[in-house]
Amino acid sequence: MTDTSDIRPAEGETQAPRPSRLHRLMRYIPLVAPVLLWAVPCWVLLFTGQHWPLPVTLVGTTLFALGLVGMPLAMVRGHGRRQQDGAAIVGDTLLGTSWVLFTWSVLLGVLLRLALTVAGAGASQDRARIVTWAVLAVSAVLLAWGCAEARRVPRVRRLDVRLPRLGAGLDGLRVVLITDTHYGPLDRARWSARVCETVNALEADLVCHTGDIADGTAERRRAQALPLGTVRATRARVYVTGNHEYYSEAQGWVDLMDELGWEPLRNRHLLLERGGDTLVVAGVDDVTAESSGLAGHRAHLAGALHGADPDLPVLLLAHQPKFVDRAAADGIDLQLSGHTHGGQIWPFHHLVRIDQPAVAGLSRHGARTLLYTSRGTGFWGPPFRIFAPSEITLLVLRSPHQATSA
User: Fold this and answer.
1) pLDDT band for position 384 (50/70/90)?
2) According to the model, what pLDDT value does residue 143 have?
3) pLDDT at 10
4) Looking at residue 83, what is its pLDDT?
5) Whose CB among 42, 48, 193, 392 lies 3.0–4.6 Å from 64's, allowing a Cys bridge?
6) Is residue 186 within 8 Å of 383, Cβ to Cβ?
7) What confidence category does residue 25 fall into, taking pLDDT thresholds of 50, 70 and 90?
8) In this predicted structure, what is the pLDDT of residue 371?
9) DSSP readout, 7-65?
10) What pLDDT is recorded for position 122?
11) How confident is the model at residue 2 (pLDDT cuts 50, 70, 90)?
């Protein structure tokens, strides 16, 4: 992408920036997407040769029409100015359901129909009806399983991360990462407490939360977030803002995390010392912070590292993986991020890749910088996780100078 930030119009000339064709098309996605999500499965399941009895066709079409109308209405009432949690639950559930139906209507509508045709299985009507029942069965199973996956306490994912500049005294440092808890319309206070119990069982030296604590203000979601105050770490608990904080009074979340004993790393750092060696633990606001208009909020890596010895290894917290471009340019050793949810509902991860350099796991960027992208601890919106399991991550930092048992 070409950087046009330094281009200036000729003297005396005023030019309004012209939106690209892609940006112009993006404006229509909120209008087109709901129609596609409901119309495509309706067509595939009811009108591609099944010849259902008229009552079945009418009832099925009516259900899809209600979904098409009801989903955006519920989303607006739930996530708009009214913030009605009941409506949000309905809208989010319909969104997830429509995505799954759309995906498997397209896949099975093409692949299964082709396989049945090649195999010569039955008449055209029979093949069409087999596709319908297969799509409905697969979707039902995936939605039930995805709901259970979304609401379970995440599994712990453990990995060793070797940092060439890490001193021997810090070898075996245990870092626990949680992120994207997204406390929201569904009351998950008990789930939150169980997550914190799991974190405490890992006996971490450093616990990190890389943002998107909740959907809603700190006052509104306080009860669900309070268990975070029970999290234990031998050295520090640190937090940075995510983009969702900037949809709901970010400063309130910063203040609440501070009240709960977490260290908000808002473009600043702290030093973690052990065995005569030191690790710089830095954090930046989310990349959307500046556009939020909230005074003093922006992603400022130079500010986060101000005063730190450049010869020391740096662990950076940044909500979005795409901040790694700036991190790599500054020679950061390890960046921890969330934001992607691993796609949350397959195959959405393919769309996430358009915006982010990594979707999940450990990746290398530049000569020195490692990025770990968590799939997230909670879920956003649709209460489903399909082929993108949530996680609590235990990263054991390893020094090349010494290997000890964690």
Assistant:
1) very high
2) 98
3) 39
4) 87
5) 42
6) yes
7) low
8) 98
9) --PPTT---PPPPPHHHHHHTTHHHHHHHHHHHHHHHHHHSSS----HHHHHHHHHHHH
10) 73
11) very low
Domains annotated on the chain, with CATH: 21-150 (no CATH), 154-398 (3.60.21.10)
Strand partners, 362: 372
Query: Burial, 230: exposed, middle or buried (Cβ in 10 Å; 0-12, 13-18, 19+)?
Result: middle
Q: Which pTM was predicted? A: 0.90
Averaged pLDDT score across all residues of the chain: 91
β-bridge mates for residue 334, sequence order: 315, 370
Average pLDDT score over residue span 158-167: 97
Contact 325, 360 (CB under 8 A): no
